[in-house]
Amino acid sequence: MSGVGRAMQQGIKTMIQIQGQTIIVHQNINTDNATSFEVRGIKNTPSKNSSQVIFQFTDALDIPVGAVLQVKGSLDYWKVIDTEDIVHDDTFVNFEVRVEKVNIAGQPTRPTKAGGVYNLHGPHPE
């Protein structure tokens, strides 16, 4: 079974080579300490949760929570909310970064859902 992890690793590498994009990783965006670097990766949506966006990379990278990712040439920005090393059969397969869409100031573009407004009527509106 040790070949399963290697096969998955090779599959991810091939997918990123063929369909990947240049991803710009911005750290400390909008500060005097802002830095960025470019890396080949792919923006993806896991099949189990189509509203979640992830970025996948072939190497384990130093991308901290709070960094902002951008597909080169795009005006969309994605703030890192979690990272994970994907390992199968003791073999590193790929590095995944979960993100939420943000504006250039780093603020979420989809406000969190607030509780509903309840208008109660009648003799006991509690």
Q: Could you explain how this protein is built, in words?
A:
With 126 residues, the chain is mainly β. It has a single domain (2-102), classed as Beta Barrel (Thrombin, subunit H). Helices cover 14% and strands 40% of the residues. Strands 1-2-3-6-5-4 form a six-stranded antiparallel beta barrel. A hairpin with a 2-residue loop joins strand 5 and strand 6 (91-102). The model has no long low-confidence stretch (mean pLDDT 86).
> Main sheet: which strands, in order across?
1-2-3-6-5-4
Count of DSSP strands? 6
Return the string of H and E elements: HEEEEEE
Going by CATH, the architecture would be Beta Barrel
Helix percentage range? 10-25%
Mean pLDDT: 86
Secondary-structure map:
Layout: H1 2-19, E1 21-27, E2 35-44, E3 53-57, E4 68-71, E5 77-88, E6 91-102
Antiparallel strand pairs: 1-2, 1-4, 2-3, 3-6, 4-5, 5-6
